[in-house]
Amino acid sequence: MKNKRLTHIRELVAARSIETQEELVQALRESGFQVTQATVSRDIKELQLIKVPTADGRYVYALPPEPSVNNEARLQRMLPESFVSLDRAENLIVMKTLPGNAHAVAALVDAVGWSEIMGTIAGDDTILVICRSAVQAAAVEERFRQMV
Fold it and tell me: Domains of the chain by range and CATH?
């Protein structure tokens, strides 16, 4: 129920001008959520809602701006520090990392969103990178090698 409520709060804040917690409580109740002001206060904190000025000088709740993260630059920094080895078979790449680093590296590889990569599977120190074709895997392997 909490996840539904948080999603609905995001939708409400994006669609309407809500100035106070009381207005948000009322809007949620009208939508069928039984909430208290204390619950809404915690939800606002969890969602990291901010107050922004409107053209007429009022302040309304808004979603926080999306952080601008350059995942490829983060991968470029992290990979040389945790890389151990790399091998390829057909459309699969197996990358070895220092123990405990595979999940973080794999998450960055996924976040970069290279179209050649279908996804990754990570263990403690091993990542399986699944590419769409053997040709694309060779290109991805070369990109990784240039980073390390």
Answer: 2-62 (1.10.10.10), 71-147 (3.30.1360.40)
